[in-house]
Amino acid sequence: MLNGVTMRLNADEYILHALKEDITSEDVTTNAVVRGACPGRAELICKEDGILCGLTVFERTFHLLDETSVFETAYKDGDFVEKGQLIGTISGDIRVLLSGERTALNYLQRMSGIATYTRSLAKELEGTKTTLLDTRKTTPNMRPFEKYAVKIGGGQNHRYNLSDGVLIKDNHIGAAGSIAKAVAMAKEYAPFVRKIEVETENLDMVQEALEAGADIIMLDNMDDETMKRAVELIGKKALTECSGNVTKDRLKEIAAIGVDFVSAGALTHSAPIMDISLKNLVPVKL
Predict the structure, then answer these.
(1) Cα–Cα distance between 168 and 197 in angstroms, integer?
(2) Which CATH architecture has domain 125-269?
(3) Distance, CA of 251 to CA of 268 (rounded, Å)
(4) Residues 274 and 149: beta-carbon distance below 8 Å
(5) DSSP assignment of 140-174, as one string?
(6) CA-atom Rg of the chain in angstroms
(7) What would the pLDDT profile of 248-277 be if each residue is shown by its tens digit?
(8) Integer CA distances (angstroms), 75 to 21, 87, 119, 270, in order
(9) C-alpha to C-alpha distance for 68 and 51, rounded to whole angstroms
């Protein structure tokens, strides 16, 4: 979770980079309109129903510009909010509020959108044994935030990055010469605590992955009938993951087939942002 310690260790660098992207030398408009320090307050308002995510990142963005900024809210990540609700207020130097507004909102809108979309898909799997996973199909330099948002929305994270686990895909198989050779080399090279997953596209590949001793077998872009046969063939000898062409409408039928996991890149690459605005900025007296 993005608490104070993990924020400083893992998120500050990303947020600072986003701020530097938006402010290369100065905020010329703000500096023209506000010539000196001036305390103010603005309201964070929800403009559509959804699941909040990224409140800590929103707050941290302003703190990195001025640590005396104060964000007040009664909500937490994972809370449902409705259109028109006041989420909270941000107070501080008006120059900071104006300069940090877009970056802070970009994070909050994007993360809340992913959490909201993930929640809608996760509901389709309630009562089943199938777990919803994200993928590495994330926005560059947004991965920690987007994967966190998936968890807030009720999904789970697949491997975080290439250092996090062994996933032998089609091109790895091509490079090694066969599934059997790729798995054997992975077992020889990777620490024994690493599970080995193999991507398969047909039943022959499933059989080869089983015989090679794969821990997890990905059933990639298979039709329902082939997937059913694959799950029966695998039994309890390995975990199963469905991937490719995963849509909300298909989730219930995929779960009914009995796969352990279903991964959807759409959780991070296709979720629409949630409309949230920072409005009603006014000067205040200290």
Answers:
(1) 6
(2) Alpha-Beta Barrel (3.20)
(3) 17
(4) no
(5) TT-HHHHHHHHHHTT-B---SSTTS-EEE-HHHHH
(6) 23
(7) 999 999 999 999 999 999 999 999 999 999
(8) 29, 7, 17, 26
(9) 28
DSSP3 helix / strand / coil % (the chain, rounded to 5): 45, 20, 35
- CA-based torsion, 162, 167, 170, 172: positive or negative: positive
Closest CA to 273 of 103, 45, 114: 114
Instruction: Look at residue 96 and give its three-state secondary structure.
Output: helix
Torsion sign, CA atoms 72, 118, 123, 234 = negative
Find how far residue 268's CA is from the centre of its chain: 6
Domain 4-121+272-283: CATH superfamily is Quinolinate phosphoribosyl transferase, N-terminal domain (3.90.1170.20)
Provide CATH 3.20.20.70 ranges for the chain. Answer: 125-269
pLDDT at site 192: 86
Residues annotated catalytic, as ranges: 137
What are the pLDDT digits (tens) for 41-95?
Answer: 999 999 999 999 999 999 999 999 999 999 999 999 999 999 999 999 999 999 9
Per-residue pLDDT reduced to its tens digit, 180-224? 999 999 999 998 889 999 999 999 999 999 999 999 999 999 999
pLDDT, residue 162, reads 95
Predicted structure pTM score: 0.95
Residue extent(s) of CATH 3.90.1170.20 domains in the chain: 4-121+272-283
Per-residue tokens: 255: 């779960």
Cα–Cα distances in angstroms (integers) from residue 169 to residues 2, 198, 199, 205, 254, in the given order: 31, 6, 5, 11, 21
